[in-house]
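An example makes the point: we let one protein speak, the chain in one-letter code, the fold tokenised, and here it is:
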Amino acid sequence: MTDGTDRAEAKAKQAAIHEKYAFWMDVSGKLALPLVTAIVALAGTYLTTKINEQNNVRETINQREQAESALRTQMFRELVSPVVGDLGASATADDNRPERLALLAEMLALNFHEHFELGPLMLYVDELPGQTTLNRNRMRSVARRVISRQLAVLGPAAATAATATCGKESSDVDIWLTSDASEPADKPQACQIAGEPDGKSAYFECSSVDRASEVLAPFTVSSKDCRDRLTILLADLDWANNSVRVVATSTPPSAQSTAGAQADANTIPEFVEFTLSPYAMPFSDNTLLRSGNRFGLYVRQIEPSREPCTPPACDPTTRLMRLSLIWFPRDFIPPRERPTDFEEIRKSLKL
């Protein structure tokens, strides 16, 4: 009897458990569909809201870009037309034309320096007959502001390789040109390096005195990857126009080891000569070497920058020009220059 009673109780308990399980399964089944429907509805509403928000933001940005592009197009047309427009007798006779064109050139440089090479246009306005010294100084000041902006966008150059033999040398160098203020400003001057460069700066003494008997010592600087070494000479310094002739020769370190043998394209010295003006700007005025390194020289400071030149803010006895030699990052491509390394392009696009 006891065994039969235990089996009956066990069956009763098992039946009760099955009954509870069936009850909760029935309840869950009835609640599942509404819950799933509500969750799907909420998820759909959330996704729809997010998509609409993204579309609204995208549309707002597109409308803003279109409006800004239209405004800049109209502004560019209005600024360029007077500068490159009719230069006939009536336009030339306008006494205010040089001053007005200087103002327009400044506005062009400040607002469109990313897209256009404005150096030749600013130089043309600078050299207009009747252009005032005040306007020239203002334009050159604007050019230095643009140079600072563009160099800031470039960011720092690539770090020097750990195995580089020239790792102790600085790549970006300040070059200081000094001259006695008593010498005529409109007479070309030759520049001789003074002292030993410290790798971060170099000082040149410039004079219009005939130095034919002197041998001009070159100034050398290496790229950060040590693949190029520039030898720089400076001549024909013109204080009236704030310009200087630059002669630069790039010699790869491997060129010396291959002396007497047939040199390949990577060891051939490169020769570059140009006249550096205050309107040379990084995005447009730079030199690309065979190694892939790119450098540029820019006018960063002119003293005296004001008239009259009164101490202590200004030294009336000395003229000073500060140039900056910049090595560009390896991945820099000017806005108007197409990349030529198609192998790298194919790797980037995974083709």
User: Anything to note?
Assistant: The mean pLDDT is 76. The longest strand covers residues 229-238. Strands lie at 173-180, 190-194, 201-207, 219-222, 229-238, 243-250, 270-276, 287-288, 294-303, 318-327.
